[in-house]
């Protein structure tokens, strides 16, 4: 099954920016002299200038596998929110170990700070190291699925707890908001309760864009299903299944190591000599930029986007922005976001109506 194609194929491109890269030895040859915040600002700035649709920020209780800097992902996204004007910003926040009210507030605040470019990669960390940070134990499969769906549903309800026109700023009466348009949520999950409303007005996008692995079983609760499979045919089949399950968009996960200062095979051999790059279940390309562009063009028949995981950010990102993205743009397969556009605008996702406003309209 191929993806719906009403207006011609077009591929959105996301970039994972965690640490120094996806290869466990990535940090051995950093191209940026400075690490930390300066490196992150440079990476995201380069990705935006190069035309990427969005950047993602992985997270976890341990340092990145490939080395590098890892404060909390939402903090990293907030850091670059006012330094960019068109690229989407998608931190990973783990539903299993993050209090839902604070999670929803953080993401709504990011959407306000970025003028509507926030997204959420739904994390599902369930190991002992993650749960130790909150004094809990790993969940079984059924409890894990319920926890994730409970948190996503609660976050979406909280984003709707303020109607779009709740803030009135009426100087004559001294009223800042119309309290009739601010709603309690009263959500109850297996491990939490939330009364609401949110302390932050509704996000500019209405609902922050939600990305989640297709294996989490969120279906239409996620706007974008992330498909991680090691073979192209398996990616195509999984993408079709994700659409059938209700996902509006599907992105494939692809690791890349490209010809740069050295041929890709030689680069890989040197890196693997320090620490082997074990399979992570993703499609992997090691080779030329032209061959990667051809691979992505083929994937565009099945998916709406691709999230790229460079082996070494400092080495592979310049090749991606200098050769791969321009090649796709020349074929009409990729278009950079417009300055001032929300991420939903860029992705072609509608701005959702507020559930409470809809209920009021329906009841009258």
From TrEMBL:
Example of a GO MF term: monooxygenase activity
Keywords: Flavoprotein, FMN, Monooxygenase, Oxidoreductase
Provenance organism: Actinacidiphila cocklensis
Occurrences of domain Luciferase-like (ranges): 27-269
Protein name: LLM class flavin-dependent oxidoreductase
